[in-house]
Amino acid sequence: MLDIDSIARHTATIDDVLRRWRIPSRDRADIAQEVLLGAWRSMRAGRFQPRPGVPDAVALKRWIVGISWRHASHYATRAHRRYEVLVPSAGRLCQDHAPAPLEQVEARRALDDLSRVDPRFRAVLALTAQGYTIAEIAAEIGHNPNTVSNRLRLGRLWFRRVRRRWRRLAQDRREHHPRR
């Protein structure tokens, strides 16, 4: 059985995964600690079971990357980590860089629609949108590239259906309740 030191040796890998997910540096240490603690608890519970023929060090690294990836993918949904940084007259600072209001509304709708997609597919969609290739995503999460490709295909299909459904509902609402 491996010990806590063998898990702790992978802190650079954990930090790399969190950085790739663009987790703010102020939260990286907390999430890395959760990853290490979760990996240790899982190992003690017997959930670390490397495949036969795979060296323990390689299997452990893949396993820790998977745990880190899951923690990072759930980061955005955990409200207890979010807080606002107060900036005086923020409107003046970002006035030149702010997108048009309609673009902001459309972007928010797209994010809302993305939140309705199955989490397995949402994570692959998000990584693809960040510019990662299927091979890179597969290596990060420890899945076969064909599985990742299939999840990307299904995620895109699901996302299109969600977008269509909500657009249709909004259109029906406008037709049945016209503005005065």
Description:
- This protein is mainly alpha-helical and 180 residues long.
- The protein has two domains: 4-81, Rna Polymerase Sigma Factor, Chain: A (Orthogonal Bundle); 101-176, Arc Repressor Mutant, subunit A.
- Helices cover 69% and strands 0% of the residues.
- The chain has helices at residues 4-8, 11-20, 25-44, 56-75, 90-93, 101-115, 119-129, 134-141, 145-176.
- The radius of gyration is 20 Å and the shape is elongated.
- Pfam families: Sigma70_ECF.
- Residues 100-161 form the RNA polymerase sigma-70 ECF-like HTH domain.
- This is RNA polymerase sigma-70 ECF-like HTH domain-containing protein.
Summarize this structure briefly:
The protein is mainly alpha-helical and 180 residues long. The protein has 9 helices and no strands. The chain has 2 domains: 78 residues, RNA polymerase sigma factor, region 2, helix turn helix motif (Rna Polymerase Sigma Factor, Chain: A); 76 residues, Winged helix-like DNA-binding domain superfamily/Winged helix DNA-binding domain (Arc Repressor Mutant, subunit A, Orthogonal Bundle).
What are the main properties of this structure?
69% helix; mainly alpha; elongated; Arc Repressor Mutant, subunit A; 9 helices; 180 residues; Rna Polymerase Sigma Factor, Chain: A; 2 domains
Taken as a percent bin, the fraction of beta residues is under 5%
- Determine the fraction of residues in helical runs and give it as a percent range: 55-70%
Number of strand elements: 0
CATH top level label of the largest domain: Mainly Alpha
Instruction: Compute the number of helices.
Output: 9
User: How is the main sheet built?
Assistant: none
Low-confidence stretches: none
Measured distance between first and last alpha carbons: 71 Å
Instruction: State mean pLDDT (0 to 100 scale).
Output: 82
CA gyration radius, whole angstroms? 20 Å
Q: State the CATH architecture of the largest domain.
A: Orthogonal Bundle
Overall domain count: 2
Approximate shape: elongated
